[in-house]
# Entry
Amino acid sequence: MISYKKYYILSTVLLLSSKGKVTLKEISNITGMSPGYIYDFLRSFQNIIIDRDSIYIVDKSSLVIEAWLKGFNLTDIALKTGWRDLEKLCSIIFKKFGYKTYRNYRFKYRGNNRELDVLGLKEPNILLCDCKLWRRARVSQLKIAIVKQKERSILFAEALKSSNFLVGLIEGWKYAEIYPVIVTVLKTSLKFYDGVAVVPLIELRGFLLEFEKYKDMLEYEFVELK
# Structure
C-alpha cells in the first residue's frame, strides 16, 4: 500500500507542475517533509528529472501510468492531470494491449464533421472512445453522451463503407466491427446502456483484457472491407 506521504508528494508535484516551475523547497514547504526524503522518492520515477532544486516532469501522462504501475490509485492521480491527459492516458493503456491509437481523430462524411477522443484499432475491432473527466457523472448525462457516441459510430461506419479513409491503418482487414465506448475517470452506477459500455478509467485495463467476453453485450457497426 502506498503511504500517505508519497501520495501527498506526487499529488502536489502534479498540481504545481500545471502552473509552472516546481522546486524541492516548495514541495518541502507545502508537505512539511524534508527535501532529502522528497528527492529520494521522486528520483525513483523515470518520468521525473531533478536538477539541483528544480523538478521537471518528462511526460505527465506517462508519469501517471508509471505511478499506477507502482500501486498508486489511477483515478485519484488522473484527476490531477486535466482533460487532454485523460485522452492520452486512455491511448497509452490501449497501446499496452496492442491497439493502434489516434487521439482527437477527425473525420468528415456528407458535410458532417466529427471528432473522436481516442480511436483504437486492433483487428477486427475499432473502438471509438469518448473520454469524460466528469467529477460527478450523472446517469442522465451519461445516457446523452452514449446516444451522441452511437451517432458518431454510425457516421464513422458509413464513412468507412463509402471511402476507406483508414487505408494503411487497416490494410489487409477483411471486415471491421466498430464499437462506441464511454470512458469515465470515476466509477459510475451505469455499466452498459443501449449496447454501449461505460468504462471507468481504473477498469479500462480489465475491459480490454477481456473484451471478447463483453462482445455479446455490446452493439457494433459491421463494415465489410474490400
